[in-house]
Amino acid sequence: MPKPSNQIRLTNVSLVRLKKGKKRFEIACYKNKVLEYRSGIETDLDNVLQIPNVFLSVSKGQTAPTQDLAKAFGPKTSLDDMIQEILKKGEMQVGEKERHAQAERIHNEVVDIVAGKVVDPKSKRVYTAGMIEKALELLSSQGAQHKQEEHGKGGGTATPTADGEEAKGKKKDMPTWTGVVTTKSAKSQALEAMKALIAWQPIPVSRARMRLRVTCPTNILKQATKAGPKKAAQQDNEDADEEKATGTVKDKILSYVEQVQTQDTLGQEWEVVGFVEPGAFKGLGEFVGGETKGRGRVEVLDMAVVHEGD
Length: 310
Hints:
three-stranded antiparallel sheet; Ribosome_mat_SBDS_N_sf; ribosome biogenesis; single chain; Alpha-Beta Plaits; cytoplasm; alpha+beta; four-stranded antiparallel sheet
């Protein structure tokens, strides 16, 4: 029996589905490209979409009527904008085996990222991926238990302290980790995992920083700088003070430094020594080199240090 001509084979398709305005819309994407698009690795929609259209049902080849799209997304919304909203906010529809493999892949990425960014506060040594994985598993079970307590009792319970009520409130506000999901990038989930590890301390852990010395001619410091890419620490930290990232060359350099140790002006040269998140090192070096035309320097004083404030 011949197959219907309007049926699309789903052998290599990832569906992304979004319910909006009482209708369910679907788009057909290439496998593995949706997460790349969401994390910013892939920006070309042509490389993400198998068919540049919005459907009510991809498997039936049923495209969404124009009036349905206009009612749900707004009459002035372009097709590209509709597709981008579905891509960013929609839910990926994948098979059980593929979902498991995808979750495992993201889990491994998260563990690797975290293992490269945290250390033992006393020894300053990095942890193996296996140790980080066990610590996150412990947090995951604790996080699930904490959520049950919140739903069952109307709030979390805390370890007994002299200030019991205050501790109870603090515990409720602390970041939790319940395992990876397939709807977020590994990088953003690694940040959540690190916050939970540092907050709960299932193993002694602190975020690793590099200690650097940055020098720059004083006559360049007050020059205005073009707003470039934010440093890695700012991209990772939702609470970062983004105001520092714009303004003068000095403002921009200081925006990379999480904690300043010393800051001096010696003759015609300004110097700052402080702690920088490892992921920000490359961007800082490129900025100083480009903005000072090679007259500024970034020197590594210590590759992996821990300072108070975690």
